[in-house]
Predict the 3D structure of the following.
Amino acid sequence: MITVAAASRTFKGKSGRVEALKDINLTIGEGEFMAVIGRSGCGKSTLLRMIAGLIKPTGGEISVAGERVTAPRRDVAMVFQRPALLPWRSVQDNVLLPVEIFRWRRSQHVRRAQELLEMTGLAGFRKRLPHELSGGMQQRVSLCRALIQNPKVMLMDEPFSALDALTREELAVELQRIHMELGTTIVFVTHSIQEAVLLADRVAVLSARPGRLRQIVEIDIPRPRSFGHNAHLEQVADASAELHQLLLTEEHLPITPQAAGRVHS
Amino acid sequence: MTDIESGSRVSRVWLNAALPTLGAALAVGLWWLLTTVLKIDPFYVPSPPDVVDSFLRTPRYLLEETWITVQRVLIGFGIAVAGGLVIAVALAASRTVERMTMPLLAAVNAVPKVALAPLLLVWMGFGNSPKIVMVILVSFFPVVVSTMAGLTSTPADLRELARSLSASWWQTFIKVRLSWALPQVFVGLKVATPLAIIGAVIGEVVNPDHGLGSVIVGSGTSSDTPLAFAALVLLALTGVALFYLMAVIERLLVPWARAIAS
């Protein structure tokens, strides 16, 4: 579904050129949940924005569903770190914003908006304004807004990192449920190992300066997964430990060719 | 202008009305006290009773003059706001137009309008038109500047959202930037309102025919200081009324702005 081929991105800064990403090779299959994890400055947000079409790669090529990415697409929805809701619009009107911009028939999508809001537990808040909602609820609204596009791909840039720890866990579990129900391909940028292990089929670990793909870790734990006590605590611990190791040590290890090319069936 | 948010609605309305009235009453009381204790000649500073007497001598005349000034203010302000918004949108839309026009606007704004008033007499004579032109000249610049500031201050996350939805420039402008700019527009309107009154009065003082400015000039000729003060009080009340009118309109049109700020 998504192919990242030798993608690089260099920025021209005041004190010279900054190589944010170098030679990233990645394939993400349809319906797969791919987490991208790395320290600050490793270029994971840049990578996501290149897939979204908001930034152009300075080297290499990125394609989604077989087509080269040149600009933002309607079948690719993005969820940002901040909810970015329009403060003068009600919750329902915020969810329907993509429908208005794409000039779809509003009447056909109002029911879908209500269903999505119900699915995320916001049924009673349709007519409220964003400032009346908590941070977690606002982020749920922005999730609904992304889903109303019926996207083939959802790109999520640390969507829960502006929230408190408990709300993060709650929303992560909800996102897992949505992924299991809808089967959307999701690329999820995070710096939380916990979230990555809960949600992802595979985790791409990026190293910083310049951003390079260090390793891809498979998470084979059966779904639905949960935090806290469950039957797979040992596997969760193993995966977490491996990710910790990769993130907190400095050496750049070569990626295994098999992991890079594996497609989730 | 702070409101007391807690408590019942009745108590809030009472406090919002009572406290300003109390403040005004104390100020008037202090004024009365000073003029009495320091035995100031009414020729220089009349006491509040003198001013009230002067008003009550010719109330209809003074209210008519007030209405004439208010009409000029409203018409001129309306034109200034409409024109100012259009200019601001044009400047915010195109950097080229902005770079060409902004220095000119700043130059026009920098010229003291008092200096222009005699020229207006030459160009337009007496009557309403020169006063209205003066109001426009004085009040349009704050509207332009604050509207532009509002239009260019759209937060990055909203702009990126619009880009990620592949919204056109026009869609982004109408759906995101315009509404976001409204609170700033109202800041400009609230600044421009008292300036509009100043403009009308300058026009009337320099080219007196009708209106409160003319009354003040006339009272100078007849050494009737209490009358001048009565006219000043009426001007002040007009200013307060218009300012709070702007605030009320803002509350109705942009209810979300206060919620974000708090």
Remarks:
- Chain B has two domains: 1-39, 47-261.
